[in-house]
Structures are given as C-alpha cells and as structure tokens.
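[step 3/7] fold_predict: job queued, chain A
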Amino acid sequence: MQLSSSTKLGLIAFLAVDVALAVIFVSLYLLRSDRSTEAELREIGATIFPQPFEISGFDLTDQNGDEFSDEDLLENWNLLFFGFTSCPDICPITMAELGRFTNLWREETRKPPPQIILATVDPTKDTPDQLKDYLARFNSEFFGLTGEPNDLTALAENLFVAYGEPTTEGVQPSGHNNHESRINPDDFAIDHSSHISVIDPNGDLFAVIRPPHRARDLVDAMKIISE
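[step 4/7] structure written:
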C-alpha cells in the first residue's frame, strides 16, 4: 500500500515530535540527576568547578628527599591538604580521616585510593625527615611536600589556599616557671585554609572539599567526583 505525500509528512511529523519529547525527557532526567548530585556533594561540603583550574608547574621535595613536581600529579586523582606537623588540631584530625578514607576506599571500590599529599605551610621546621616521621603516624604511603617558601606559596595560591606566618598569639602556655605562665618556643600557630584540593588526572584543580573532613564523606564525594 502506497502512502500519500500528506500521510508521509504526517508520520514524519509524529516521529519528530516523539524524538523531541524523548530528548526533553532525557534532558530533564539528566538535569534532575545533576541537581541531585550537586545537592549531595554540597551536603558533604564538596564543590566541583565548572571548569578545572590549571596548576602552574612546580618543583618541591617529598618526605624521602626526592623531587616532586606537577608531573607527579598526572594519571591519578590527588587529594592535597596544606598543613604543618606541629599543628595541634585540624591537621592531625584531617590526616587521620584521610588515613581512614584510604582504607574505606580500598574496601569498597577494590581500587587504589587517590594520592594523598600534605604540603607544609612551615617549610623551615618541616624537613623531609620531619614529614616522614609525621606521615608514618597516619599512612606511610602518603606524600609530604616541603621546599622553598616562595614555591609553596605559589602552589597554595593556585589551590586558593591562604596561610600566615607562625605566631604565638593566642597559644596557650605549655608550662610554668616560678609560677609565671610562659610560652614554650615550640608552641606556635599558623593560620591556614583547611579545605582539601581535589586534583584530577590531568593535573588540574577539579574540586574542593571543605571541613569538617570525615572519611565516610570523603569516600562518597570521591566516588561521585571520579566517575
């Protein structure tokens, strides 16, 4: 049976409408899915940038005394945190949660975890040996970076990290001398940003995760981010 031209045009029109509706429904589903994902990440404290930020080249030194450059960020996901080994609170808490994160990640995904990196804001005291001893408390596979202050500052700026100079202001006295409060020379604080920078396998800043950092949340966030 031959169809008339008008019938053919009608069928084509119906098909076009069906295709258009299918595209709309798929788009709405994906939009709803994206919004759901964004809401989930936002609740965790993670933000994916619309466009990854390029990280300038750098040359630092790791806890083994080896060179660590921007090329060492390639081909794997990286979680980089700026802190220092004498930090009394947020740093050890964050590093401990990152240690738990790597264990959970291996258990649930059966895949190698992202590369964990601690970059110091106190390069004067945080030598490679100091970083190595510190990281051993959490996970000996973690990387610790130190180097010239200007090089660390440049990397920090690339990752939207800010930090100040060491100060004893606001530090509680650690002992008493002749009943007078005193500040131990080793007691000091450094104000610094406490978010975790998520660096993608291309070596670009892909996302940030804000504190408080919890291993469970980090696993959930990275499962979404690394898809």
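[step 5/7] annotate
The chain has five helices and ten strands.
Residues 7-33, 170-185 have pLDDT under 50 and may be disordered.
exit 0
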